């Protein structure tokens, strides 16, 4: 499994997931501030955050301590924007497929209550269907997005295969982790609302990064259980750096021959 650390049978580390982003680096609060600014940039801001999450996941899976991640920098805005395009597109496709199904299921629950002449039962069924449906949709969409983040390419077939394999091997743990993430994020957002509501934005970033950290933990567990590693397509910047290294090596070899 390459350089990826594995932790057989390890418990999910929720405290680390919520604390690593601002608690493990001297400039963690700066990263939080810059990432929060992205929320206020229309359209492209969320794409940049997706690109940043992709680089974060890539770095975390190679860290045995699951603590080290790259700093956020607007100097790499275009590079992060490009990296975030593929997970956005695959997530959009997944949403277009599953959200209408969820909406139809909610209306079906209401219709059942109406047919039984019991609006209260229909409303209760609709709420239950919506709650469990949201969990199910996210349990599918998150691995799809994660695959695109790690693979750095548009590969719908690969994303589907990974998601099916992921759910087969660690699906139960993933659903539990998603439920715990939701339960822990709610009070975090509430505390943000108490800070003149403005605190909701950085609180949502902390929750977002915690979710990414949990997905990394689940991915490592998936690899440890025999799952297939996601093969990354190099970014343009990585290709340029590799080309420069190769050119430098050729120059050094030429100088030695002379």
Automatic annotation (TrEMBL):
Xref: InterPro entries: DUF4013 (IPR025098)
Transmembrane segments: 32-52, 85-115, 121-141, 162-184, 190-210
Keyword Membrane: yes
Matches recorded under Pfam families: DUF4013 (PF13197)
Presence of keyword Transmembrane: yes
Keywords, in A-Z order: Membrane, Transmembrane, Transmembrane helix
Biased composition (Acidic residues): 247-258
Highest taxon listed in the record's lineage: Bacteria
Region (Disordered): 233-258
Name the UniProt record assigns to this protein: DUF4013 domain-containing protein
């Amino acid at each position: 499994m390459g350089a990826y650390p594995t932790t057989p049978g390890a418990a999910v580390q929720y405290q680390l997931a919520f604390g690593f982003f601002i608690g493990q680096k001297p400039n963690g609060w700066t990263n939080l501030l810059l990432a929060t600014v992205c929320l206020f940039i229309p359209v492209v801001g969320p794409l940049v955050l997706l690109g940043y999450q992709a680089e974060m996941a890539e770095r975390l899976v190679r860290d045995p301590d699951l603590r080290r991640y790259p700093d956020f920098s607007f100097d790499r805005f275009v590079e992060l924007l490009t990296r975030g395009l593929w997970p956005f597109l695959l997530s959009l496709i997944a949403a277009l497929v599953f959200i209408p199904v969820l909406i139809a299921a909610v209306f079906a629950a209401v219709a059942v209550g109406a047919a039984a002449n019991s609006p209260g039962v229909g409303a209760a069924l609709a709420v239950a269907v919506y709650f469990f449906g949201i969990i199910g949709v996210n349990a599918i969409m998150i691995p799809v997005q994660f695959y695109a983040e790690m693979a750095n390419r548009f590969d719908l077939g690969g994303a589907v295969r990974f998601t099916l394999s992921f759910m087969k091997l660690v699906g139960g743990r993933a659903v539990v982790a998603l439920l715990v993430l939701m339960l822990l994020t709610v009070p975090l957002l509430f505390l943000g609302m108490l800070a003149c509501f403005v605190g909701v934005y950085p609180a949502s970033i902390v929750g977002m990064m915690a979710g990414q950290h949990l997905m990394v933990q689940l991915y490592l567990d998936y690899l440890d259980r025999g799952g297939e590693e996601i093969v990354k397509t190099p970014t343009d910047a990585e290709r340029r750096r590799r080309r420069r290294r190769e050119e430098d090596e050729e120059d050094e070899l030429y100088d030695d021959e002379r």
